Amino acid sequence: LRRNPGEPEFQQAVREVFESLEAIQDRHPEYQDHSILMRLCEPERQIIFRVPWVDDQGSVQINRGYRVEYNSALGPYKGGLRFHPSVNVGIVKFLGFEQIFKNSLTGLPIGGGKGGSDFDPHGRSDGEVMRFCQSFMTELHRHMGEYTDVPAGDIGVGAREIGYLFGQYKRLTNRYEAGVLTGKGLDWGGSLVRKEATGYGAAIFADEMLKARGSSVDGRRVAVSGSGNVALYAIEKVAQLGGIPVTASDSSGYVVDENGIDLALLQQIKEVERGRIHEYAERRGGGARFVNGGSVWDVPVDIALPGATQNELDIEAARTLVKNGVLAVSEGANMPCTPEAVSVFRAADVAFGPGKAANAGGVATSALEMQQNASRDAWSFEHTEQRLTEIMRGIHARCLETADEVGRPGDYVVGANVAGFRKVADAMIAFGVI
Ligand code: NDP
């Protein structure tokens, strides 16, 4: 960790995985003999580049682009691109590190990577976003390929951005290489259910955790944070499972809707109009209200699905949730709960699903998109959703079994970290020192 100063999120993610691995260190001296942990702390390759582009006023803007190709033991580097002003090398490394174990847990042949830029798409015109994406891809394309590195979306990167990125990749390489990016539009190589997959998966994971305790999402009040790709479809799946999603948020505040969030209205405001969350309360009327700032976790609920960003749920929020009787927390976002918050949930015996397990549905469906691209096929919604559901149930079962096996029953954090790690470590040993 001394080699990575000024990267608190990366250190936090590494520390959590290493703590979990203490449960197996005596049984697996070979991991120490092969310096697997030290090797895992160092990405295989990190690319940092200048992204120049011209705004609508004709001024030159400069952003910084990143791609951390973290680990390719199980397959090509796979992980999203994030466009947000907070992006820096430490954030991209933390996300890439988590992605290795998440992708391993899916059981699909994908390695771990992550990338992005400090570019902020909020308030930018379509033309500005397009010129930025084209400039970003002008550098990144030489590092990508369906057998090398396959990016996707993340915060600030949705279907529009993937379209501009794919268009520029195709133009620069003169290849229609559909499997080089995932999250594509349905008319040009995308997969049904990819858009919904992360949010659906996080809700399914919550349901599985509750079922393991003889309960379910049905009839439960659920708080969701965020109102982007993950949050919208977590809300949809919660409602399909019989739960009542009562909140959504963005960086300005949150809304509470006691009648259950009206998904069509929220999608219109967020996906179509790219508006702010207060507009939901204004247009919905009735029982909906907007809270400026504040913490969405103050709302009394049975289940929490954090779906916005890292470290958004701290120790105070966790204590409030526990005081209000929360039963399960399923991380739709990456590392949204601080380590202290996770300790509070553990102490209160709240079922806690860490992001690398609970939000793995998105990358799993990306891998299904790659399968469809490779076979020049397109699957139905029902078939793809069925595959997603099976994958989420499989991940849940693998976490529980592994936690049992290493003497930490019910601990999904340890289960996910150990199960994800073992496959990667064994492959690295098989490949020798490379
Ligand atoms: P989106 O950009 O679609 O939405 C992000 C949402 O979170 C927005 O409502 C945004 O509000 C809010 N948000 C972002 N940053 C902050 C912040 N610093 N403070 C408060 N609110 C914030 O992103 P996604 O839904 O794709 O991603 C959300 C999370 O899920 C991320 O952690 C991502 O890594 C993770 N994830 C996403 C996957 C996917 O398939 N998309 C897969 C697995 C994990 P505002 O618009 O105001 O910024």
UniProtKB/TrEMBL annotation:
Pfam families: ELFV_dehydrog (PF00208), ELFV_dehydrog_N (PF02812)
A Gene Ontology cellular-component term: cytosol
Domain Glutamate/phenylalanine/leucine/valine/L-tryptophan dehydrogenase C-terminal intervals: 191-432
Residues given in the record as NAD(+) binding sites: T198, N229
CDD domains in the cross-refs: NAD_bind_2_Glu_DH
The keyword Cell wall biogenesis/degradation belongs to this UniProt entry's keyword annotation: no
Keywords per UniProt: NAD, Nucleotide-binding, Oxidoreductase
Gene Ontology terms describing biological process: glutamate biosynthetic process
Entry binding sites for substrate: K78, Q99, K102, G153, S366
Record note on quaternary structure: Homohexamer.
Protein name: Glutamate dehydrogenase
Source taxonomy: Bacteria, Bacillati, Actinomycetota, Actinomycetes, Micrococcales
